[in-house]
Specification:
Blueprint: H1 2-18, E1 24-25, E2 31-32, H2 35-46, H3 48-63, H4 84-103, H5 109-137, H6 141-148, H7 152-172
Antiparallel strand pairs: 1-2
Pfam families: BioY
Protein name: Biotin transporter
Subcellular location: Cell membrane
Amino acid sequence: MERNVAYIALFAALIAVLGLVPQITLMSGVPITAQSLGVMLCGAVLGARKGALAVLLFLVLVFLGLPLLSGGRGGIGVLAGPTAGFVVGFPVAAFVTGLVVEKWRSAPVVLAAFVGAVLGGVVVLYGFGLVGMALKLGKTLPETAMLLTPFVAGDLLKTAIAALITKGLSQVRPGVLLSRS
């Protein structure tokens, strides 16, 4: 029990630390950050439930006002901006990523983590982000999708990084990979 709580807190902190990586903000107002990598790792390493809990802990801290989102953003006001859908989608993305890794035990860890990160950290997260941005910016879904296109390559790179880190952890410390235990 204590180990699970420690991992959840550790991965919430990981997401916060990845927010310190300097962001690049495109014309759409959505920053390119490393925090979605943290969300993917939460699911891939901790599994669906614990990964989502780590992200929820992170979001509770953000909503309480801690400036943990990239660019030093925090507080409930983050839900008023164009990235609100992404923020709301973070725990669902971690859950889906973790669920794929947990359920697809016949696949090598690296493949399950990659597919999980693509489905959770890209498809699901973009689904939430797309709807949130469209509503906040008053644009259609296709118009908003065009604004998000520049992010796809970077996010696919993050899925590969998440898969490789997950594989590395499984080789060095197999007990750490809660998604497979």
